[in-house]
Write a structure and sequence with these properties.
Elements: H1 2-16, E1 20-22, E2 37-38, E3 46-48, E4 53-59, E5 66-72, E6 78-83, E7 105-110, E8 116-124, E9 128-130, E10 132-138, H2 139-157, H3 163-166, H4 179-204, H5 217-251, H6 256-261, H7 263-271, H8 278-292, H9 295-305, H10 316-325, H11 332-365, H12 376-390, H13 406-444, H14 448-457, H15 462-467, H16 471-488, H17 492-500
Helix pairs in contact: 2-4, 2-5, 4-5, 5-8, 7-10, 11-12, 11-13, 12-13, 13-14, 14-16, 16-17
Length: about 500
Amino acid sequence: MKLKYVMVVLLGLLTACGGYKQLTPKPEVVALEAGYTPILNKDKSFELKKGKKYYMTFPAALKPNFYLVLKAARLEQLNSHLTRQFTKGKGDIKIAEESAANDDLLVYKLDQTVPVFTWVIEEVLAEMVLDLDYRYVPVWRYRFETKNAEFQSILARNKVSRDNYDNLGNGVNPENLRFDEILNEIRTKSGNLKAIQGELLEIEAIFPPDIKNSDDKAYLDYTGLRQELEEELRFHENYSNVLNFFKREKETRNNNTTFSESLSEFNRFFADKSRYPEHVRRAAEKAMAQRLSTVAPFYENKIRQKRDVSPLDIPVDELEKLFKESGRASDPQFQAIAKFTRAFNRNAEALAGTRKGLNDIMARTRNSSNWPSDNFYTNLVPEMDRLLSSLPSASTAQYGQLASAPCVEQLNREALSINQQVNAAQQNFDQAAALVPQINRLRSQNDYRGIIQLLKANSQIDFLVDQYANVDRLSLEQQTAEIAAAYDSKQWALAESRLRS
């Protein structure tokens, strides 16, 4: 009786210590990559009692980025988790379970922080036979295998028909394409494909170094899918480029202004034309040849109507490039326009530069903050010489067939006017160069009255008056000081003389 009582007490103590029963698989669990392996107790599955608690240990994976996958029927009857440290009910830190909510799997990402992980069954809701399989599998492989079918389905649904593209110019007239509709379709489908492309790249980021270029079936399936996906996305991009090219060409018809604004876009298309098949290139070149035939008359008319001397807004460089890239030789009329535009713009810019240079110099001569030094105007001579040499030539030969355009006559007229202004200013500067040293000597003698007389004698040099704007005030201040000094020294006659002068 006493022995029986002791055994009951010991059993109670053991129950109070946790009440978890360990399940020890035989054969033992092996942490190697493989397919699903059954968990057995020798030759049969474990039996679980309702309301009981169990645990089972799993060794850590030998490499990083591995999943432990547990597969079992009736998982909904088990309340379980995986932990790095089993505390027997005192609050395990649970590892996140990453399977889909509706499958019969438990998926846990293992790390190498502990040698052993523990799968804990906190509660069995119904008596059951534990038909459990386990698998150690690299994360990349599991993610790809479980999503490959979905990826393939998304790729198939988001492919764009190639019928129009493959027959463009050969039975399919670009005129009849529904540009916006197809572009919207491509935009939507490309977005869907780029989403799975992002997922594939995330998987690739955790490839083990030894998997690349191997004959691993999952790896080969991955590379095949990715290549097919990237090829489809390249087609989307190419098809979009082609559609946008013909769409823009159609939109700019009968409007050479908007056509000119789109030249860089057309040139980018042709600069990369090797990415398109021959029949697409021929269709694009044919469409552009028709457009380029209208360019020369439009711009010649623009030149002949021009009356001012601002540079011409004719993109000859882009047009010449488009002629070349589209395989069409430029016609003589356009060549004449290009020659004229370059000559006129070069001369218009030179004229504007000379005018600005002259205005800047004249502004300096009218600065009254400081009186000029003896060599101020002498130093301006080389600058004036450079201005004269920068003026455009009046020769009309440089303009070719369009030399009679009114804007050429206007440019030559304004160039002549600037030439005359520069020469006139230079003559005044020569005279000023001789006067300034005299003025500076008179100033050193405080002879402001003499300076005023000298300026009046040369009043035709108007900018000198601006430079010596304060000479009247200085003269008056000097006269006032002299009168005051005469009064202070009681030299009445001298004071009266200064007042009269």
